[in-house]
Every structure is written in structure tokens, then in C-alpha cells.
Amino acid sequence: MKTLLQFKNVSKHYDKKTVALSDVSFSVNEGELVSIIGPSGAGKSTLLRCINRLIDATSGEIIFEDKDVLQIKNKSKMRALRTKIGMIFQNYNLVERLSVFENVLHGRLGYKSALVGALGFYSEEEKQQAIKILQSLGLDEQIYKRCDQLSGGQKQRVGIARALIQEPRVLLADEPIASLDPSSSKVIMDQLKKICSTLGITVLVNLHQLDVALNYSDRVIGISKGRVVYDGDPASLTDDHIQQIYGSDREALNLVVREPKEVAQKI
Amino acid sequence: MAVDNQARSTLINGGGPSFQKERIKLRLMSKSRLAIRLTMLALAILTVVGFLTFDYRDVHLLKGIMSTFANFKTIFAQPQLAHFSLSEAIYQLLVTLSLGVLTTLIGAIIALFLGIFAAENLSNKKVSNVIKGFVALIRAVPTVLWVLIFAVSAGLGSVAAVIGMSFHSISYLTKAYSESFEELDAGTIEALEGCGASWWQIVCQAVLPSSLTSLISWTFIRFEINFGVSVAMGAAAGAGGIGYDMFMDSAFYYNLHEMGVITYLILVVAMLLEFMSLKIKNKVRS
Predict the structure, then answer these.
(1) In whole angstroms, how far apart are CA B83 and each of A267, B97, B230, B235, B241?
(2) Helices H, strands E: what count in chain B?
(3) How many other C-beta atoms are found inside a 10 Å radius of the C-beta of residue B271?
(4) Transmembrane ranges (chain B) (predicted)?
(5) pLDDT at A105
(6) Which among A20, A126, A133, A249 has the fewest CB atoms less than 10 Å away?
(7) What pLDDT shows up at residue A239?
(8) d(CA B146, CA B214)
């Protein structure tokens, strides 16, 4: 399989003391669904945002489609890069006052001249494409609804539609199910899996839920304090690795959920 | 419970000796709270001292209040036209109203652009600070003073009023608009940036639609202010309109009956404006 994305010794320092990523290296093949797991503040979000340059890495190389994205200085080249990378977020980040349809079409802005996009002119083909994607996500009845009238799961599906209409090579998902209930979470994860397997789009997803990561992904990358501490099959993730990633073993993690009283007493 | 006293005092005051008799404070006394209390106390003392040391001269307080009420009665209970007809009054009212519309419109258009560049999430910090500092300076001087300042070059009259009032409207609306823009969730901007959208596309497709309601309501508030100021400008700066008639009635003819008519007319307009703004806001929201 072809390598689509490669991190080579990537580091990110916010200032001299705060290190978000240090010396991160890994590669992602085309059509893979890769989960990135790790505790809060480990640098997962920073890692994703370095890929589409919403955050600039301090040093290293990020090779996407055989080019180093960190070398892009030109604004139009940056926009061209970003059109190839879709992104969805924990808080959906839609324009709540606009309709579902308009929000989905925002995914096409990167392809348009500044003026045409600013005025909100979209071609008929783009509109048809948007409707097709919305139908495939089961949102065809909500097309003209305003986004603030939707449920969380529906909003996240609009977010996915906005990313898909970009016709991306890779989809970055930053904690896509962290604010959703279990059944909506399942719908979203199933969709991501489907996108990966049927459309061949590579998916990188940040997750807090270890069980979800193990169930859905082709590969797991574990991050702790800005360093990659595990990179491999979900099946071969051992207790030692989990200990390394989260600083506590599998049983201790379960304990927090199952017997909160006992934990409280310990404190 | 087998918690000994030593452990309890550790919990309450971090290991120091226990002060069990003292009541537990709800909030810690901070510097700002102390400052607020001192200010309130000083204001209260000043108010009492002020009332005690007023120089009433020969005016009898009760009599003064009574005659004021008598004047109110003349104004509000017996309104009557004397020097001009109702249609003339309405025409003058329209002049005042259009002064308000014009200055608000000029202010809104310029402030929209300044507001975008003054919003910290859309512009860089330096530009934003420069614009914000500049408009704060303009806002610190009252509208009437700006009109009088421009009257030096333009002469007293409508020109000075339009320039001066627009000037103040720009600074007021720039602050209001930029704060509305800043309320937009940073994630939304980030998401559109991630799609490859350009800066102007983000402004037009995300920022403006999201803040439209508050833009409209701020503009209407400023319009109401400007209408009030236009009335005053008619008198103070000779800008014409209903304010000038009111000034003539009060200072020249001393005709309280006619002032009553004008007051009612202004009241009706103000209420209409309020009603209109409510309607428009509801329409935009749904």
C-alpha cells in the first residue's frame, strides 16, 4: 500500500517550556483508519492540526502526497492543500444560523475565487453533490433546516458532509464522538468506517474511548506527553502499552468507571 | 466519624491552628471587593452631605416642585399648536428623523469595515488595538462636543451636525460590531480555514450571518440614540428639525402648550422605532 502521509521528527513548542509534540514520527497508508489515542493534553489535537497547518509545527517534516506541507508559504497553495484534507470536530463547528445545505456547501469554498465564495454562489453540480452526500448520511429531510435545530449526532453528520464535499484524500476527525451519546457515537463511527472502506479516504481520528479505538481502527497510535509510545495493530496493544500511554493499567482504568466510590475514598 | 480535630483543621485552614469559633466566610475579601465597598460608602456620604449643604437661596423646595408639576400639566394635559400647523410639525419631525437615519447609515457602513478589522479573532492584535484605542478616544468625547468641534470649520448647522454625529456613531458602532464578531466561536472560523476558505469568504459566510441579529439590534439602538441627539442638535447646533421648534417654544415664545405637542410627536416616533426594531429582530431570528 502507498504511503499517503508521513511525519518525520515533527516537534511543536508553544513557548520554550510547553512542548506539545516532540520528535513525532509515523506514517499512514492510503485507505487506512488510524486512531490516535492518549490522555487529555497529550498533543493529539495539535498533531492533527499540524497536518492541515491550522497549527504550524516548529520543526520536522510532514510529507503529504510526496510534498512537505511545512514548506508551503504561498496562500493559494495552502488553500489547495486544505481542500484535500477534510476535518471534523468535537463541537461540530458549523455556522449555526445557516441551513444544513449552506453549511455543507462551505466545503467547496476552498475551490472558489474569494469573491464568488464570499457571495455564496455554488454551481448546480455542487448542489447536486451536496444533496447526494446528505442523502447518503440520512439527512435528506433536514436539508433546509437551520443547524441550531439539529441534534448533536445530526450536526456531526453535517460536519462529515462538509468534509466529504471537499473530495478529500484524508479526513481528520478531532474527538468526533466526545460530545455524543453512545448510539449517535456508533452512527458516526460506522460512517467513518464506511467512508474509509467504500470511498478509500484515509481517516485519522483522535479518540478518548479506548474500546472504540480498538474496535474500529486498522491501526492505533498511542501518544503520551507529545511522544509516540505505541504504533501498531489494535490487537497487539498490551496492558504495558496502555500503562505507558495513560499512566495506569487496564484494570485501574476500569475501576474509575465501575467503582467511583472506592476511588473517592482513596483520595 | 473518626475524623480527629487535627485532620479537620488541616482541611479547613491548611494545617494552621484551628479557629473553630470564627464564622466561615462565604467569599474571600479581595482588593476589588474592598474598592467597591469603599466607593459605595464614599458615594453615600457625598449624597447625604450634598443634600444637607444645598444652597436653596429663596426657592422653596415644595413650591418649586409644585410649579414644576404645574408646568408638566400644561405640557402634557393641554397640548396645543400655536406657531405652526400639524403638517409643518410632522415635516420638521421628518427632517430630524432623516438626520438620525443619515448619521446612523454613514456610521454603520464605515463601522462595519472598521469593526471587522477591530475584531481580535479576524484581524491581528496590533491593528485591532490601534482601531479600538482610536475609537475609544472618539467615544470619550460626547456627540454634542464633536458637533461643536466640527462647527468650527463647517459653521453651526446641519453639516456640522451630520459630520459630528456620524463621527461618534462610527466609534460607537465599531466597538459594538467588533464585540459581536468576537463572540463567534473560534472553532467555526477554524473549520472554514480548514476547508481552505479565504479570509473574506470566512467573513461573509460565517462571521456576518452569525452576528447579523446583534448587528441589527446595535444599529437600531444607535438609531434611537441618534434620533434623540438629532432633536437636541436642532436646538444646540441649529441643525433644524423639530428640535429647533422646541427650542424656540421653550426659550423664545415660552409656549408650553406647543412644547406638549412636540413632546407627544417625539414620543410617538420613539415608540414606533421601538416597535419596528422588535419586528425586524424577530424576523431575522426566525
Answers:
(1) 85, 21, 21, 17, 14
(2) 12, 0
(3) 10
(4) 34-54, 89-119, 140-163, 199-220, 227-247, 259-278
(5) 95
(6) A249
(7) 83
(8) 27
Cα of A118 to nearest chain B Cα, Å:
4
Distance, CA of B175 to chain centre: 11
pLDDT in tens, B202-230: 999 999 999 998 999 899 999 999 999 99
Confidence of residue B19 (pLDDT cuts 50, 70, 90): low
Contact list in B for residue A87 (CB cut-off 8 A) is 191, 194-195
Cell 408638566 locates to B72
pLDDT tens per residue across span A24-80:
999 999 999 999 999 888 889 999 999 999 999 999 999 999 899 999 999 999 999
% of chain A residues with pLDDT over 70: 93
Name which residue leads in pLDDT, B19 or A209: A209
CA dihedral B230, B233, B238, B241 (to 10 degrees): 20
Q: What is the ipTM of this complex?
A: 0.87
Grid cell locating A39: 490522555
Q: Which residues in chain B are contacts of A85 at CB distance < 8 A?
A: 194
Mean pLDDT, residues B69-81: 89
Selecting from B185, B194, B210 the residue whose C-beta is nearest the C-beta of A52 gives: B194
The percent of residues in chain B predicted with pLDDT above 70, rounded, is: 92
As given in the structure block, the three cell numbers for residue A93 are 463547528
CA B162 to chain centre: 18
The reply to whether residue B206 touches residue A95, judged by beta carbons under 8 angstroms, is: yes
- Chain A closest CA to B201's CA: distance in Å? 4
Q: How confident is the model over B159-165, as a mean pLDDT?
A: 92
How many other CB atoms are there within 10 angstroms of residue B220's CB atom? 18
pLDDT of residue A264: 38
Q: Count the Cβ atoms, other than its own, within 10 Å of residue B133.
A: 10
The residue ranges of every structural domain in chain B are: 86-285
CA-to-CA separations, B89 to B80, B259, B266, in angstroms, rounded: 12, 11, 10
Within B79-227, strands assigned E span none
The CATH number for B86-285, chosen from 3.40.50.970, 1.10.340.30, 2.102.10.10, 1.10.3720.10, is 1.10.3720.10
C-alpha cell at A175: 474527538
How far apart, in whole angstroms, are the C-alpha atoms of residue A86 and residue A162?
A: 8
Q: If you write DSSP's letter for every residue of A185-246 in order, what string do you get?
A: HHHHHHHHHHHHHHH--EEEEEES-HHHHHHH-SEEEEEETTEEEEEE-STT--HHHHHHHH
Closest CA to A79 of B139, B195, B175: B195
In the predicted structure, residue A244 carries a pLDDT above the cut 50: yes
Q: Which amino acid is at A244?
A: Q
Nearest to B178 by CA among B136, B227, B241, B240: B136
